[in-house]
Amino acid sequence: MEHLLATASKSGLDLEDLRFAQIMDRADPLARLRNEFAIPTVNQATGRDAADGNGLCVYLCGNSLGLMPKQSRRILNEEMDEWATKGVMGHFHHSKGRPWVGYRSQIVEKMAPIVGAEPVEVGVMNTLTTNLHLLLAAFYRPTDQRYKILIESKAFPSDHYAVESQIKWHGRPADALLLAEPRPGEHTLRTEDILSLIRQEGASIAVVMLSGVQYYTGQVFEMDRITAAAKAAGCVVGWDVTHAAGNVPLSLHDWGVDFACWCSYKYLNSGPGGISCFFVHERYAHDADLQRLTGWWGHDAESRFDMTNQFVPGVGAAGFEVSNTPILVAATLLGSLDVFSKTSMEELCKKSVLLTAYLEYLLQTRIGNRVEIITPGEHRGAQLSLLFASEIFEHVFGMLMSAGVICDERKPNCIRLAPVPLYNTFSDVWWAVDVIHAALYTSRD
Ligand SMILES: *Cc1c(COP(=O)(O)O)cnc(C)c1O
């Protein structure tokens, strides 16, 4: 916030002035990255054909589906050409130097620094929920004493179902599903409450499996402290970092997390249904005794094609992969990771903090008490979750969408806005708040 205030006073402009946002955009060292993405026009995004709809939309939905990196289309087309001209030989001899047989390693090298992992700790396969099941198959080993799984009470439905069904699959009682709940009247979880739940129930918890960033509230959990406390209580610790990867700083290795997984189509822009990645800590890299569900791609790469039917796990996360890499979805992720390689999480987070603080400031000063921001002021990434009174909620959301401010609604009355530092601008933020302001203060009452 200090940086925004200092820039405002130097320029002699109010933060509420669009020209202030434009000054911030001109000074933005990451502004060049916006051109790496295809940004829909208002007409394209809203499916209309309005005379004034040919300008670019304000896309604040990168927490749900990131925009398309132009590189992704290029690389995808190259893989199609490769398939057309090389057939099966593309696995080994690739005209762009990306033989399909080793494709995973190219992704892993670029993905590891984004999540604070060593390359040996990162794998690429499937989609997220499938990976949750595969990882729980290896890491949820319930005993009569230690059989519970701790998740947050309003976890993303897919995570809730996955954990609940794992518990049933293992024939464990329903009290094995342990839910961390916010205090009455509060929206977000307090770290102290999570830690005390772990202290109380620790001896009966097999796995602590929270999300790194809560999808609904945008709260970033204190992953370092929670991991340390859960490890001290003897639990296995897994994180679903889907809303955290590419959004906030992560140090999965240094925190000592056992496993983690994330999809890549949100802040990581790999496209609809994009491939998921996962993390298994280096401490298991050579642990061939760790039971897991296997397939040929997890077999040690050197001898995979010997066809002996004697399973020898690959080292690290590679040993948890099951099928051969789906190249076409891996290609679009590779395109996005190329863009990430042009910056760093440190730089991205620096801009992200400013963008989100600017959004918060404008909401507070221009919308005031007609919006409730439930995302914490401190522990958050590139998302603010806004609650509106139910009688105006649909009106506000409708106005945003028809003005070409693309965001999402979560029933009953929450709108999530995610200014993404890779492609969003300070002007985007200004326009979004201006539309909310118009919806509330000019077009009605
Ligand atoms: C987006 C998201 C999912 C989606 O799961 P898929 O298996 O990719 O369909 C699951 N969990 C969380 C926490 C998410 O944010």
Automatic annotation (TrEMBL):
Reaction(s) this enzyme catalyzes, per UniProt: 3-hydroxy-L-kynurenine + H2O = 3-hydroxyanthranilate + L-alanine + H(+); L-kynurenine + H2O = anthranilate + L-alanine + H(+)
Residues with N6-(pyridoxal phosphate)lysine modification: K266
A GO biological-process term: quinolinate biosynthetic process
Keywords for this protein: Cytoplasm, Hydrolase, Pyridine nucleotide biosynthesis, Pyridoxal phosphate
Pathway recorded for this protein: Cofactor biosynthesis; NAD(+) biosynthesis; quinolinate from L-kynurenine: step 2/3; Amino-acid degradation; L-kynurenine degradation; L-alanine and anthranilate from L-kynurenine: step 1/1
EC number: 3.7.1.3
Alphabetical list of Pfam families matching this protein: KYNU_C
GO MF term list: kynureninase activity; pyridoxal phosphate binding
Gene3D superfamilies, alphabetized: Aspartate Aminotransferase, domain 1, Type I PLP-dependent aspartate aminotransferase-like (Major domain)
Function statement: Catalyzes the cleavage of L-kynurenine (L-Kyn) and L-3-hydroxykynurenine (L-3OHKyn) into anthranilic acid (AA) and 3-hydroxyanthranilic acid (3-OHAA), respectively.
Family of this protein: Belongs to the kynureninase family.
Name under which the protein is recorded: Kynureninase
Species in which this protein is naturally found: Coemansia reversa (strain ATCC 12441 / NRRL 1564)
